[in-house]
Design goal:
The complex is a heterodimer of chains A (417) and B (227).
Chain A: H1 3-14, H2 16-54, E1 58-61, H3 71-75, H4 100-108, E2 113-128, E3 131-140, H5 142-149, E4 155-158, H6 162-165, E5 169-173, H7 174-180, E6 187-191, E7 197-206, H8 211-216, E8 217-221, H9 222-229, E9 238-243, H10 249-260, E10 263-266, H11 267-270, H12 272-310, H13 312-320, H14 325-359, E11 362-366, E12 370-373, H15 380-406, H16 410-416
Parallel strand pairs in A: 3-8, 5-7
Antiparallel strand pairs in A: 1-9, 1-10, 2-3, 2-6, 2-9, 4-7, 5-8, 6-7, 11-12
Helix pairs in contact in A: 1-14, 2-12, 2-14, 2-15, 12-14, 12-15, 13-16, 14-15
Chain B: E1 5-16, E2 22-28, E3 31-33, E4 37-41, H1 48-55, E5 63-68, E6 71-72, H2 78-88, E7 89-92, H3 104-115, H4 120-133, H5 149-161, E8 167-171, H6 179-196, E9 199-203, H7 207-211, E10 215-220, E11 223-226
Parallel strand pairs in B: 4-9, 4-10, 7-8, 8-9
Antiparallel strand pairs in B: 1-2, 1-3, 1-5, 5-6, 10-11
Classes of the chains: A alpha+beta (417), B alpha/beta (227).
Chain lengths: 417, 227
C-alpha cells in the first residue's frame, strides 16, 4: 500500500470515534438527500401521470378572441390615427366547433393520432334529495373517451360501458358521489344552465386520483349533454386527441391549430402552472438538501482540523524525512475522501432502507392527489448524483485543512518544543 | 572546495526579521569530511540549531551557498530538497518524533516507502536489519508510543539510517535522555562511524558527547570561533 494512504488510514483508525461521527454526518446527509429527492420526484411523477392521464395530449377548442381589433382599426390601414371604440359588442356566438365530425374523421386518419374523442362540457347542478352539488358534466362517447383516458381501469363500481346501453346513464366521480350520498344505480337529477333537468341513473363510480376532479366531474352520453344544452346533434365544444408519442404534442398542436383554425392546446401547456410549482418545489428541496450536506462538510472540516492540530509533530517529521507538501495534502485529502466515500455508501444504503420502509406503510393520502402508498423515485441517477455531490462536498471541506497541513513549517514545530 | 568534503558552506548568512532584524549566522564557512563525526556546540542562542536546520535543508531562508557532495543546494526547489532529505539525509531529533500510532517497524520503513526504490518486503527486511543493528529487533512490532525514551531514540536512529544516507544530522540527540541512555546513543554513533563510515553531524550542548567526536565546531553569537 502506498505510504500516504497507509498514514491516512492509521490516522483515521487512531481517531475512531471522531471518524465515525464525521462519517455519520455524511451518511445522514446523503440518506436525507435520497429520501427527500426520491419522495419529491416520486410524488411529482405520480401527479404528472395522473394529470397527464386525465388531460388530453392535445385539446382542440374554440377560444374566445380576447383582442378583437375594431372594424375602424382594420379600415385605418396606415395606422396613423388614434382610434378608440368603446363597448364593442362581440357577435353572439356559441363556442362550438363547426364541422366537428368531419374534423374528427380527418384526425383519425392522421398517422400520429391513436384516438380522437368528441367532447361537450357544461356546468351543471347535481341534485339528489336535498343534496345539491355544483359540478361539470362531460358529454362523451364513452368508448372513444376510454381509449384516450383509460377510464375503465379507474372505475370503482359499475360498468362504464352501460352508458351506451342505458339511455340516461351517468358516471360520477367518487368524491361527487360521496357529496351527494349517492350509490350505484341510484337516480339523480342533473340541471343545466339552460334550466333543462334530466333524471339520470348512476351506472358507474369513477376515481381518477385527482381529488378536485373527482369531486366535481360526471360523464354522460354526448347526446344527453346536447339535450341539456338544447343544441343540435352535431354540436361539440372540444376534440380531445391522443397521440402515438406524447412528446410530439407541442409540434402537432401547432399543425392542427393551423389546419383546422381552432386553438390546439398540448398537455404541457395545459398544466404549465403545475410544472411551475414543481420547479419551485424542487428548488426548495435541493436547497435544503444542499445545506444539510454543507453542515456535514463542516463536520469533516472540524475533525480534520482537530487531527491536524494533534498531528503537527507527525507532519513536521514527515517533511523532515522527505515527504513533500503534496504528500501531506494527499494524506489529509485521502482522509476526508475516505470519510466521504464510506459515509456516502452507508448513506445510499440508509436512504434506500428508509424509502423501502416508508414506501410500505399505508398512508392513504388525500390531498392534491390521492394515493395509498408514498411512491419514491428510486432511479439510479439520484443515487449517483447524491453520492457524487457528497464526495464533492467532502473533497472541498477536506481540501482546506489539507492545504493548511501542507503549509506547516517543520522548523517551527521542531524548534518550538 | 575541499577534496572529500561531503558538506560545505560558503559565506552563509542568516537574518531573522521578526520581531526585529537580527543576524543569527555570520559568514559561516565550514566543511565536513566524508566519514567524519562532527559536533557543533555553543551556548543557547549561539545559532547552532539555526545552522543545523540550514545544513539539513529544512530552512531555505538564508544567503550564501550550501553544498552537499558538490551539489549547490541553495538553488534547489522545495520539492527537490524534500527528495534530497529523503534519499541522502538522516535525522535524529531531541524529541524522538516517531509517529505514535505506527509500529516501530513501520516508522523505520516510512522514509524508504517514500523513496519507493524497493519492494515493501525488501524494505521490511532492511528495516529489521537496521533495528537489529541497534538491538531493537524484539521491539519491532510494538507501537512507537509504547517504548521508553531510550528505545524510541534508537528506533529514530534506525529510521535515519534506512535509506543509507550520505549524512546523519542530530539535533541534541541526547538532550532528552538520562546519562545511561545518552552514553548508549554516543556509543551507537561511534560505532556507525567506525563500522559503516557514516558521516555524522550533531548539535549538542553535552560536552561529554562533544569531546567524544572527531571534531568540534564552536559557535558564538552566530560566528564560528573554533573548527
Amino acid at each position: 500500500m502506498r505510504p500516504n494512504i497507509r498514514i491516512a488510514l492509521t490516522h483515521l483508525k487512531a481517531k475512531k470515534r471522531q471518524t465515525i461521527v464525521a462519517m455519520l454526518g455524511v451518511t445522514f446527509g446523503i440518506a436525507i438527500f435520497i429520501f427527500q429527492a426520491g419522495l419529491m420526484s416520486g410524488f411529482q411523477s405520480t401527479f404528472i401521470n395522473q394529470t397527464v392521464n386525465t388531460t388530453a395530449n392535445i385539446r382542440l377548442y374554440n377560444e374566445a378572441e380576447k383582442d378583437r381589433p375594431s372594424i375602424a382599426g382594420q379600415v385605418d390601414s396606415l395606422r396613423n390615427n388614434l382610434i378608440a371604440v368603446r363597448n364593442q359588442k362581440p357577435k353572439e356566438e356559441l363556442p362550438r366547433i363547426k364541422n366537428g365530425l368531419q374534423i374528427i374523421e380527418s384526425l383519425e386518419h392522421h398517422p400520429e393520432v391513436v384516438g380522437v374523442s368528441p367532447f361537450l362540457g357544461s356546468q351543471s347542478i347535481f341534485k339528489m334529495g336535498i343534496a345539491t352539488v355544483a359540478g361539470r358534466v362531460s358529454g362523451v362517447n364513452i368508448e372513444k373517451e376510454n381509449l384516450l383516458f383509460d377510464l375503465a381501469k379507474n372505475t370503482r363500481q359499475g360498468d362504464i360501458f352501460d352508458l351506451q346501453t342505458i339511455p340516461n346513464g351517468i358516471i360520477l366521480g367518487e368524491g361527487l358521489a360521496d357529496l351527494l350520498g349517492a350509490h350505484l344505480h341510484d337516480n339523480i337529477n342533473v340541471i343545466s344552465p339552460k334550466g333543462v333537468e334530466l333524471e339520470m341513473k348512476i351506472v358507474g363510480i369513477h376515481r381518477s386520483g385527482l381529488t378536485e376532479a373527482d369531486k366535481s366531474r360526471a360523464y354522460i352520453n354526448i347526446r344527453n349533454a346536447q339535450k341539456l344544452l338544447q343544441v343540435d346533434g352535431a354540436y361539440i365544444t372540444d376534440i380531445n386527441i391522443k397521440l402515438r408519442d406524447i412528446n410530439k404534442a407541442e409540434i402537432l398542436a401547432k399543425e392542427f391549430s393551423l389546419k383546422y383554425k381552432y386553438t390546439a392546446q398540448d398537455w404541457k401547456n395545459a398544466n404549465a402552472n403545475i410544472f411551475g410549482i414543481f420547479k419551485i418545489q424542487n428548488m426548495i428541496t435541493y436547497l435544503i438538501i444542499a445545506s444539510i450536506l454543507i453542515v456535514s462538510g463542516f463536520g469533516i472540516f472540524n475533525i480534520l482540523m482537530m487531527i491536524i492540530y494533534e498531528k503537527m509533530q507527525d507532519i513536521a517529521i514527515l517533511k523532515a524525512i522527505g515527504y513533500r507538501d503534496r504528500d501531506i495534502r494527499v494524506i489529509f485529502l485521502t482522509e476526508s475522501l475516505i470519510i466521504g466515500f464510506v459515509g456516502g455508501l452507508l448513506g445510499l444504503l440508509l436512504g434506500f432502507t428508509m424509502q423501502t420502509i416508508v414506501g410500505n406503510i399505508r398512508m392513504d393520502v388525500k390531498g392534491f392527489v390521492s394515493m395509498e402508498y408514498l411512491k419514491f423515485n428510486q432511479s439510479p441517477a439520484f443515487y449517483a448524483f447524491a453520492f457524487i455531490f457528497g464526495l464533492i462536498v467532502t473533497a472541498i471541506s477536506g481540501y482546506i485543512p489539507a492545504r493548511k497541513a501542507s503549509q506547516v513549517d517543520p522548523i517551527e514545530i521542531i524548534r518550538g518544543k | 572546495m575541499t577534496m572529500g568534503a561531503i558538506l560545505e558552506t560558503k559565506s552563509l548568512n542568516k537574518f531573522f526579521r521578526d520581531p526585529v532584524e537580527f543576524q543569527a549566522l555570520k559568514n559561516i564557512n565550514i566543511s565536513v569530511e566524508r566519514g567524519e563525526f562532527v559536533s557543533i556546540i555553543g551556548s543557547s542562542g549561539s545559532g547552532k540549531s539555526t545552522l543545523l536546520y540550514i545544513l539539513s535543508t529544512l530552512d531555505t531562508d538564508y544567503a550564501g551557498s550550501l553544498f552537499l557532495e558538490s551539489d549547490d543546494l541553495s538553488k534547489k526547489t522545495k520539492n527537490e530538497l524534500a527528495s534530497i532529505r529523503n534519499e541522502m539525509i538522516g535525522f535524529v531529533f531531541q524529541f524522538h518524533y516517531l509517529l505514535p500510532e505506527f509500529t516501530v517497524l513501520e516508522n523505520v520503513m516510512l522514509p524508504a516507502l517514500k523513496l519507493g526504490k524497493k519492494h515493501e518486503e525488501e524494505i521490511e527486511s532492511d528495516a529489521m536489519q537496521k533495528l537489529e543493528l541497534l538491538d531493537m529487533k524484539s521491539q519491532a512490532l510494538k507501537k512507537a508510543n509504547k517504548l521508553s525514551g531510550g528505545q524510541q531514540q534508537r528506533a529514530a536512529i534506525a529510521r535515519a539510517l534506512i535509506n543509507d544516507p550520505k549524512i546523519v544530522f542530530g539535533d541534541e540527540p541526547t538532550g532528552n535522555l538520562d546519562s545511561k541512555n545518552s552514553q548508549n546513543v554516543l556509543e551507537i554513533f561511534k560505532e556507525l562511524k567506525k563500522n559503516l563510515l557514516q558521516t555524522i553531524l550533531v548539535v549538542t550542548h553535552d560536552m561529554n558527547f562533544a569531546n567524544n567526536t572527531d571534531r568540534i565546531i564552536r559557535l558564538h553569537d552566530g560566528e564560528v570561533v573554533q573548527h
